[in-house]
Amino acid sequence: MVEGELSVTIESEEGERARWPLLLVAGEIDIQTSPLLQEQLTKVLETGVSSVSVDLSDVSFLDSTGLSVLIAGLKRCQEAGGELHLVAPRPNVLRVLEITGLTESFHLKPGGTGEPPG
């Protein structure tokens, strides 16, 4: 992967015991790449799901435009009665969430699965 690129892969399963859709995100989320994240997150939410997990374990950088995309996704999930989980953010990404006070808004999960809690 070239520095500055972003990769977003969607994993989802069918059936009663299906996990929440999981977006696997890799690279840098910034002003140039955040539209891709927004497009993929919107694509998932338009399928009718209300809860989504976003795996940030391979995200090396997150700026304010990336935060805006995540906040917009969170609001859409909440409006539909669901949740948005951020999974395994790296320390530098977690620090951005802490500085902006967003750790209280998002459900943060340490592991790398889209399993709902409980």
Report on this model:
- It is a single chain.
- The protein has three helices and five strands; from the N terminus they run ββαβαβαβ.
- It has 118 residues and is of the alpha/beta class.
- It has a single domain, classed as STAS domain (Transcription Regulator spoIIAA).
- It starts with 5 loop residues before the first strand and ends in a 9-residue tail after the last strand.
Write the SSE topology.
Layout: E1 6-11, E2 22-29, H1 34-45, E3 52-62, H2 64-79, E4 84-87, H3 91-99, E5 107-109
Parallel strand pairs: 2-3, 3-4, 4-5
Antiparallel strand pairs: 1-2
Helix pairs in contact: 1-2
- Ranges with pLDDT <50 over ≥5 residues? 112-118
- Tally of contiguous helical segments: 3
Provide the helix percentage. Answer: 25-40%
CATH architecture: 2-Layer Sandwich
Tell me the number of structural domains: 1
CATH class: Alpha Beta
In short:
The chain is of the alpha/beta class. 31% of the residues lie in helices and 27% in strands.
List keywords for this structure.
alpha/beta, 118 residues, 3 helices, globular, disordered C terminus, Transcription Regulator spoIIAA
